[in-house]
Specification:
The chain is of the alpha/beta class. The chain is built from 15 helices and eight strands. The chain has an eight-stranded mixed beta sheet with strand order 1-2-4-3-5-6-7-8, with helices on both faces.
Length: 301
């Protein structure tokens, strides 16, 4: 893709998976890991990354089950969907960092990537110097808040967790229509902000039966084993130990139904700051310059 010239595509063989990532910038500069969400890939960061490549060594992986990273099928041997737990996905990210020789990093995640980043910051606190989560509240708190308003706004949280192959079959009937509906939803107001090259990449990667299944497995894990891990962490008193930036869209569901600063402050032992931005859910693509400025300001040593 010529529009991502200067961003090297790398493949990584990991102990229990494989991953694809793009890297850019000077490896001697602070590492910044950018994690994407559903139903996207790492290319969602392309405009943000172009603005930050002079300041950081950027690492942008496709999460397990997305893009060109490993698409792990659910198996009877793992009925808890642990192959798509945020712990497993975070371990993949750490494996990529190890392969690149990165000992510690700044970390930012949007949507599902924010949930992976949350788990990584808990399980590998020594690797994370600063954390940013974009347009999410903690998973456990969001499920605990479930009522008609939340279920209507985030119906996919309950649809995708149904036993296979029901949601896979339904989405597969018109996967492109489903993808477009998701990319234009949650306060975003359509897909005009997405560049054609990025939209083509999302279509290529998502509209495959194995990718749809992997996305469902991601959500099945979040409604089960991820909640177990979160409850265990809270019971043990584990908190995020680095300063944390929280950004969310003022037209999105998180703004309407949650208090993200308060919820994340309860999970952090360090300073938590943040603000609502004039966007819907897909902030890095709707407001790339604003996002890049906020990350540069927060993560600059």
């Amino acid at each position: 893709m010529t529009w991502m010239t200067g961003f090297e595509r790398r493949s990584f063989d990991l102990p229990n998976s494989t991953a694809v990532a793009r890297v850019a910038g000077d490896p001697s500069k602070p590492a910044l890991v950018l994690l994407h969400g559903f139903p996207q890939t790492h290319v969602m960061w392309h405009r943000v990354a172009q603005a930050l490549a002079q300041d950081f060594f950027l690492v942008m992986p496709d999460l397990r089950g997305y893009g060109d990273s490993a698409l792990k099928p659910g198996t009877p041997e793992l009925p808890d969907h642990s192959q798509h737990s945020k712990r497993a996905m975070a371990t993949d990210v750490v494996g990529v960092l190890d392969a690149l020789g990165v000992d510690h990093c700044f970390l930012c995640g949007h949507d599902r990537g924010g949930r992976v980043a949350h788990r990584l910051a808990l399980d590998h606190a020594e690797r994370v110097k600063g954390l940013c989560v974009i347009d999410i509240a903690p998973t456990l708190d969001m499920y605990a808040r479930t009522d008609m308003d939340f279920a209507r706004a985030y119906y996919h949280w309950f649809h995708l967790i149904q036993p296979a192959p029901l949601p896979e079959t339904m989405i597969g009937g018109n996967s492109l229509a489903y993808l477009m509906n998701k990319l234009g939803g949650w306060g975003t107001g359509g897909t005009a902000h997405i560049e054609p090259e990025a939209l083509a990449e999302y279509t290529r990667c998502f509209c495959r039966p194995e990718a749809i299944h992997s996305a469902c497995e991601d959500y099945r894990a979040s409604a089960g084993i991820d909640l177990e891990h979160d409850r265990e962490s809270r019971a043990a008193g584990h908190t995020i130990t680095c300063d944390t930036l929280v950004l969310w869209g003022e037209r999105g569901v998180v703004q309407r139904l949650f208090n993200p600063l308060a919820l994340w402050s309860a999970q952090c032992a360090a300073t938590v700051t943040g603000e609502a931005l004039p966007a819907g859910h897909f902030i890095p693509e709707e407001l790339p310059e604003t996002t890049a400025w906020a990350l540069r300001d927060f993560f600059t040593p």
